[in-house]
Design brief:
Length: about 675
């Protein structure tokens, strides 16, 4: 029924689009194409279909994924990490159930037909500031790298992940000459006093003398041209200002309205080659963007969970219910070595017991296990294959674009068109060949061993090959049908609710159908799960989430301090982001950012409303429970106030102690 609803929406939308005044023919054609082709939608989560986490950058998605979704999911059902980053093209039968990536919604057409989607949204102003700060932080880290720095093979760095793959080099290039110039300014004898703000306190510091003071004497205050005021982290000589960045084309390309574009599947990272042109159409024609915003909204309403970053804990608690879990459900550890097809089933547990099993590691333990050397070789090879696939796809998209343009402006003769068609065909063949080679490499991965985090569950062991996989898939379906006797009923129930609603529009059924999610008992190959495998004893997913989120926050704060230390002037001032500094950003800059994010602002409001509605339903059904609170520690109050940046030593004496003739 929901499909009919969607087609109605699409037809209506197409009719509206036809009336969009001023839209060029090209925009019209792209709109028609989009509405016609991009119609696969998220399905409800039943417990036996894949859950895809559509990760919008800077929404606390990493914490959400690794501290909640992963910990709540049996390791044997998680997709290997490699799936996040390789942009594998066809995952219609991947034998795993929890997948997360920075891809946009265009990837959903390549996931299983019944894939369910969850996501987190954030106020676009916060998201934009966070992206600016993060890109600067990581770019600053690259300044400190030695010239011969080489990335570890098989390791995925932030710089490799979209959109950071563009933003970090962008900021690194911008700041390198500026930082060099600022650090080359010679310091006068006796240095200069600078104003410092740290953890909500202000004082003065002299780098040359290496002294900090609460107050300065008149003499000190006049030294070498006077005190240098606090460095504004959002507007200074070391890096492109927030204002300039907000107006830069790269921000429009990669960040503004990024959540809406990601939901629509038309980001800069889209699998659809015309996404860029289509985005340009949207910004040129407000009625068109209003129309597409409605498409995004109805899409989001179908998601199994929509949360918001500003209410991370409520979102996490609600997501658990939508996944058929509760805060008291089992918590599982286990790194990428334990994902789908690698262990945790009763069959494999028995085999594993016979080996000397000192080599298994948890998340933190790295990948020192057996087979790691060979795994690394395969990992590198897999990455190379995936890169070739990406390049082949780019070439195909370019060829298609050229052909469409040539057909559109009628300037080319038939021979030229024929040549372009030939290029498209050739590019398509190349892409298919590259995909096949990637699949082949994947299939060579042995099934039962740790392969440096790149083992993809699909391959049969040894020469088993496709037959083996097909057999296991059949077996899996059978077993699942048995184990999940209630699923079909549950799905039908959900469909009825939609029908009763009439429109298929308000798909808020997640909350009320949450009790129909059947927690799965088998892995992707049909092996019964060993439910005690990697289970964290005496704990539950709620407790583990709260702990893991606190740890993640601490880790990233200390890393940020170290990274930003590279961004300083020769007089010792440095870029330090903090809540206090954010409050000083001029209103007009905030307004400017807001004005570029009208779609995301509305989408975020919808996210908040959906979260409220679902929590209300979940509470009414007695399923929602607040997450536990961490016991307060002495650090935590300070942590809340804490800014980021290198730490300067505070003045020795108490504030306001008698320091002679004081000023200010
Ligand atoms: C993905 O693979 C399946 C099965 O091999 C095939 O039926 C389907 O058409 C493929 N989808 C895409 C988008 O290539
Ligand atoms: C500056 O002084 C502090 C103690 O007040 C000391 O810990 C630090 O090492 C000194 N730094 C330099 C660069 O001398
Ligand atoms: C994505 O954005 C980057 C940075 O602006 C640009 O260089 C690249 O060409 C874009 N890619 C696509 C497919 O539009
Ligand atoms: C130092 O200056 C602050 C104002 O910035 C003032 O409140 C404080 O009393 C001063 N301390 C002393 C010892 O004069």
């Amino acid at each position: 029924m929901s499909k009919v609803g969607f087609w109605l929406t699409a037809a209506l939308a197409a009719a509206c689009a036809a009336m969009v005044r001023g839209a060029t023919d090209e925009c019209q054609a792209l709109t028609d194409h989009y509405l016609e082709k991009h119609h696969k939608e998220a399905e409800p989560y039943t417990g036996s279909n894949m859950l895809y986490f559509l990760h919008v950058p800077r929404t606390a998605g990493r914490t959400f994924h690794s501290c909640l979704l992963k910990i709540g999911t049996h390791p044997a059902r998680r997709c290997p990490k490699a799936y996040d980053h390789l942009r594998l093209t066809n995952m219609t039968a991947p034998a795993c159930y929890l997948l997360s990536s920075h891809d946009d919604f265009s990837v959903v057409s390549m996931l299983p037909p019944d894939v369910a989607v969850i996501n987190q949204l954030r106020d676009p102003l916060d998201r934009f500031l966070s992206a600016y700060e993060f890109a600067i932080e990581v770019a600053a880290r690259s300044l400190k790298r030695p010239k011969n720095f080489r990335k570890k093979v098989g390791r995925i760095a932030t710089e490799d992940v979209w959109p950071w793959s563009y933003l970090i080099p962008f900021f690194a290039e911008d700041m390198r000459p500026k930082v060099a110039a600022a650090q080359a300014v010679p310091q006068p004898e006796g240095g200069r006093w600078i104003e410092v703000e740290q953890d909500g306190e202000r004082w003065f510091h002299n780098k040359a003398l290496n002294v900090s003071r609460w107050n300065l004497t008149d003499e000190e205050a006049g030294l070498n041209g006077g005190v240098l005021p606090l460095l504004d982290p959002y507007d200074n000589e070391l890096v492109m200002s927030l204002r300039e960045f907000a107006q830069h084309p790269i921000a429009t390309e990669l960040l503004h309205n990024g959540a809406a574009f990601q939901v629509l599947g038309i980001t800069n990272y889209s699998h659809w080659g015309d996404a860029g042109t289509f985005r340009a159409c949207l910004s040129a024609h407000p009625p068109l963007s209003a129309q597409l915003l409605e498409v995004a909204k109805s899409r989001v309403r179908r998601f199994t969970h929509v949360g918001t970053t500003d209410r991370l804990f409520d979102s996490a608690a609600s997501a658990l219910v939508s996944m058929g879990l509760s805060i008291h459900s089992p918590a599982y550890s286990g790194g990428d070595d334990d994902v789908a097809g690698r262990g945790g089933t009763r069959r494999r547990a028995a085999a594993a017991d016979e080996e000397d099993d000192g080599s298994r590691h948890d998340d933190a333990g790295g990948r020192g296990g057996r087979g790691a050397g060979g795994g690394r070789g395969l990992a590198a090879q897999l990455q190379l294959m995936a890169k070739l696939v990406r390049e082949a796809r780019t070439r195909l998209q370019a060829a298609q674009r050229d052909l469409v343009n040539a057909q559109r402006d009628h300037s080319s003769d038939e021979a030229a068109l024929e040549a372009l068609r030939g290029r498209v065909d050739k590019a398509r063949e190349d892409l298919i060949a590259a995909q096949d080679r990637l699949a082949e490499t994947r299939d060579r991965l042995p099934t039962g061993e740790a392969e440096a985090g790149l083992g993809l569950g699909g391959g049969g062991g040894g020469g088993g090959g496709t037959e083996d996989v097909a057999r296991r898939r059949g077996q899996r379906r059978l077993l699942e049908a048995e184990a999940d006797g209630g699923v079909a009923e549950a799905v039908e129930g959900a469909a009825e609710e939609l029908q009763a609603d009439g429109s298929g529009r308000e798909v808020l059924s997640t909350g009320s159908s949450a009790n129909k999610v059947v927690v799965p008992q088998v892995d992707g190959f049909g092996n019964p799960l060993d439910m005690s495998f990697k289970r964290i004893p005496n704990s539950d997913v709620g407790t583990e989430f709260v702990r893991c989120a606190a740890r993640a926050q601490q880790r990233s704060a200390s890393r940020r301090d170290q990274s930003l230390a590279a961004l300083s002037t020769s007089d010792g001032r440095h870029v330090a982001f903090s809540k206090a500094a954010r409050k000083r950003i001029p209103q007009e800059v905030l307004d400017l950012i807001r004005s570029h994010n009208a779609m995301d602002t509305e989408l975020h409001s919808l996210g908040l409303a959906l979260l409220d509605a679902r929590i209300a339903e979940q509470k009414a059904a007695g399923l929602f429970h607040d997450l536990p609170k961490l016991p307060p520690t002495s650090d935590r109050g300070a942590a809340a106030k804490r800014g980021s940046g290198p730490r300067l030593v505070k003045p020795l004496s108490e504030r306001g102690g008698s320091e002679g003739e004081l000023r200010r």
